[in-house]
Amino acid sequence: MNKHTAELLERHFDTAFAAPDGIKKLRELILTLAMQGKLVPQDPNEKPASELLKEIEAEKQRLVKTGTIRKPKSLPPVTEQEKLYALPQEWEWVRLGAIASYIQRGKGPSYVDFSTHRVISQKCVRWYGLDIEPARYIDPESLEKYESLRFLQGGDLLWNSTGTGTIGRACLVPYDLNSTELVADSHVTIVRALSVNNKFLWRWIQSPGVQAGIETSASGTTNQIELNTSTVINHLIPLPPLAEQKRIVAKIDELMARCDELEKLRTAQQGARLTVHATAIKQLLNIAKPDQHQRAQTFLAEHFGELYTVKENVAELRKAILQLAMMGKLVPQNPDDQPASELLKEIEAEKQRLVKEGKIKKPKPLPPIKLEEVPYALPQGWDWVRLGSVGSFERGKSKHRPRNDKRLFEGGTYPFVQTGDVSRAKKTKDQILTCGNFYNDFGLQQSRLWEKKTLCITIAANIAETGFLGMDACIPDSVVAFLSVDPVLSKLVKVFIDVAKDDLERFAPSTAQKNINLAIINELVFPLPPSSELHRIVAKVDQLMDLCDSLDQQVDAVTSKQAELLNALINAQSQSNAAEQLQPASLSTAQVIDLATYRANIGCYAFSKLANAQYFGRTAAAKVMYLAQAYIGLELDLKPEREAAGPLDTWIYDFERQGQGKRWFEVNEKTLANGRIKTEYRCLSALSEPAAKAEGLMTSGQKAEFDRLIYALADKKTEEVEIIATLFAVWNDFLIDGAQPTDTQIISDVRENWHERKARFTPAELGRWLDWLRRENIIPQGLPPRTVQQSRLGFD
């Protein structure tokens, strides 16, 4: 390893310790450097890999003559175009089949309850080694059909060859299992190398370049992809001299051990931070011992910056704030405030009035509170009361069966909020802004429309989730509505339910569908403060929750910067390696001659990935390129306009002309049933060259995320891609402008401030796609460009 590489790794160890997934990325860098010949120095006195290959070939010929192995098929020579990068002088690019005496998938076994022979499945193949425990037994009689080569030998490399998530995992068969009768099943490939360090081979498979390409080179359906034996045989491997292989393995082991130590230290530090914080919070909540409570306050204040650098502690702080609010410890008491008993009288009088007017049901008498039910002492002026006495809890209505009868929803306009919509409110400042369906007049007849701002509490499936209706809506009987004489009291009841959530879940029976009844909620003991203090508490909770939001954002910002720094260091090293190597196809961003070429290569990459997508056309292409810049962060320098079909940069027209002239793709126009013209593309073979160059223009992280984005959009209809990109753009524009928008603001901006054609999308429809963006973790970060308002363009 040269001095520059050694110094770089030392810097990476420090940076990786702080960055999220930093140690994981450092491991990947170590393996990448190893496979590029950058981890240990070369020795010109060592026998080169070309001589090693001659020895391997001679040994193969000997084994063929003795009948030990079959004569292998001839392998095609490695072409210059296939070589991924330049190697040190003593190394060689070879196909895996050239250095192995046997490469074959296992067979489908006939299992029995017990025998002397076992079958290695994918579950047995682990990165940490071969796990015999899950191995099942094979019928000994079936082994008569197994040739001797199929029995595993010490040093064999086992490579999982099927299934998303398991494909690509590999391990070595320990030499102490050499005499154990083991065979592999048909999902595991056996690689038996000749005169090669088996652990080097295993480390090569671990390297990010190999792992990233496995699912690409695999064949089959999404549910069952396979790494064919022919693909394994023809896989390229950078082969160093044998002595250097051993030095590389030793150096990798040394550096990986250091990574292990860093992980343990980081875990210990994080654990200590969480433990110290948990202890302080426990003391803070111990109001029975005021001295502990005060010491905890002082400690948290002194160590605030250190403790709240992790989101777990911020989450615990949120809980503590709510608990202190319900204990009367969040704001000071005022002896001049009217006591809670007066507030309770006002609530009862208002409830009687609402009963007379038929707006609420007459409540059932609630049992008096027993002394043993009181969990702690309250400040003067507070009272313990039954929760049902401070308002009216009523279950939602959805009487009709079956619940999904289409007659309830056809042409519906009344939002029908369900438990999942209430759960999602925590992501939108406790406002319920989504609904999965809309009742029509027939549906409304068997339900009830609740007013906007009504507090909703789930009592089935997701127990004790809370939120306030962001619109007038219907709710099912799995959701309870709280009717209050004072909106601020509703907020305190929400705080109480959030604090009591775990207790409420314990009331739920252990069934497939958890639920609690209305009586449980009504009979909960509730600490009621004086009216004036109630308002001060709610205001303070809102203020402190905003502080917690700010802390979360700071954690995200720091985490992002740490990751950015580590990526920059790693990418700088990768680019340095590329500059030293003579591979023109692998360009870094800094090496791109001009913006036009860079844009065209990225465009070709996107087109090649979406070539077979059913709905792929100009509209989708423009949106994908916008997201490549605004979400992935590729430096395309696009200036998107707020066009009828979403964000658009007119560069797409120049690219179409360029693509036709270069014979990358054909551009065709198709008349749709509604009379509109749709522009579609047919990709040609010449597209592959600029698409391949694009891979060198992206970091591994950018490429992986771009691929994930493209895959997520591949099956979406044109209009759906339009909605997704427009919502993303509006959200992102808000962030660029320094605002944190609500879903309502995003949806309103799309429908009212983008283009008149956007009004055809309903708020509920846009809300569902905002949820989709969150589920797919395609979240804006305020990256440029900001969209600009323009007059309408002739774009389909």
Comma- or semicolon-separated keywords:
globular; alpha+beta; disordered C terminus; 5-stranded mixed sheet; 796 residues
Describe this structure in words.
The protein has 796 residues and is α+β, with helices and mostly antiparallel strands. Helices cover 45% and strands 13% of the residues. The protein is built from 25 helices and 28 strands. The strands form 10 sheets. Strands 16-22-20-21-18 form a 5-stranded mixed β-sheet. Strands 2-11-8-9 form a 4-stranded antiparallel β-sheet. A 4-stranded mixed β-sheet has the order 3-7-4-10, with no helix packed on it. Strand 24 and strand 25 (646-648) form a beta hairpin. Helix 2 (22-35) packs antiparallel against helix 7. It is globular. The two termini are 56 Å apart. Residues 577-593 and 790-796 have low confidence and may be disordered.
- Backbone structural class: alpha+beta
Helical region count? 25
Please report the total strand number as a whole number.
28
Mean pLDDT: 85
Low-confidence stretches: 577-593, 790-796
- Could you say which overall geometry the principal axes of the C-alpha atoms support? globular
Distance between the termini: 56 Å
Largest sheet: 5 strands, mixed
> How big is the Rg?
33 Å
| Share of helical residues | 40-55%
The strands making up the biggest β-sheet line up spatially as: 16-22-20-21-18
β-strand amount: 5-15%
